[in-house]
Amino acid sequence: MSAASPPPSPRRECYSTVSQVAVHVPPGHQTGREIEGLLRVRDPDARVLPGLLRQLYGFEQRRVAPQGTWPSDLAAAAGRRVLDQAGLLPDAVDLLIFASASEDVEEPATAHIVAAKVGVTASAFDVKNACNGLLNAMEIADALIRTRQYRRVLICTGERGSLLSRRPRHRANDLAEFLPACTLGDLGAALLMEAGERPGVLGGHFRSNSAGWRAATVSNPYFTPAFGTMTLRFDSAALAASFHGMETAAFDALRALGRTIDDIDLFCVHQPSVGFTHAICEALGIPKDKVVPTFPQYGNVATASLPLQLVEATRQARLRPGDLVALFGLASGAAAGMVLVEW
């Protein structure tokens, strides 16, 4: 009788890591006073006082891409930079996810346009969830890598938010609902997530309060009663209220991962305004010296906000290998999410 075969060795667990991050910063910029001046020219009856954007939002300036720049151009530039940093060619990418609030076209997915510009021939698709799109893309990439469907996922975003503030207002008394659009900036960003034997993405938690979706809306010009029109509405008070209680989810997620606020080395928090960022950090008990402010100089760059903070933290030598990074996303809808990463 032959000896029994040895049992198969257990399959080594697969984890995902964030191996690279990069941003593409457009060359142009626009100050708050310049934007206020343009608003007065467009609407002489509007009472736009000098320094209004700074007083309301802590806004100083935003980046503005050249005329004719598409969201895919910004995303592709950041994607190419990430691959260059990693020393990889486009054919090393197994999946490309475009995760932006802006998009080139309604169809097809802008991910295909980005992939064509970068030279990626792998599968590609879009993820869209307002300012939380990139964080949701990380959630998806982590799951796909852990289940060994892909080894290397390129997540790209390209925001052209400055274009929204150029849209005409539709009512004479809607300035308050329109002003937040004047703080939206342009930026490209990209993350490279790869399979590894050590845990990089340690876990996360997402939740929604979908009853608050009316607080901030941008209509679809293709599917409106007046074809080709776009309307904007940002009710800042209602949007802030729609996030009420969501900060407890962050505590619960950290606790479930065996961590506390004190364990975190760097907090990246979506920054739609200085006041809102301070309120979120105060609610979570996040020390100011563990946050990288980006809103005053870049404006609200939507899905690019979190990778921008990672890049700025690296540039300032505030992010080192082994650091624990908590990424907090907030989006109209309302949606909130937290992903914990060991850098």
Automatic annotation (TrEMBL):
Listed SUPFAM superfamilies: Thiolase-like (SSF53901)
Keywords: Acyltransferase, Cytoplasm, Transferase
Gene3D superfamilies registered for this protein in UniProt: 3.40.47.10
Domain Beta-ketoacyl-[acyl-carrier-protein] synthase III N-terminal as annotated: residue spans: 125-209
Record-annotated Beta-ketoacyl-[acyl-carrier-protein] synthase III C-terminal domain positions: 255-343
InterPro entries on file: ACP_syn_III_C (IPR013747), ACP_syn_III_N (IPR013751), Thiolase-like (IPR016039)
Coiled coil: none
Protein name: 3-oxoacyl-[acyl-carrier-protein] synthase III C-terminal domain-containing protein
Organism: Streptomyces huasconensis
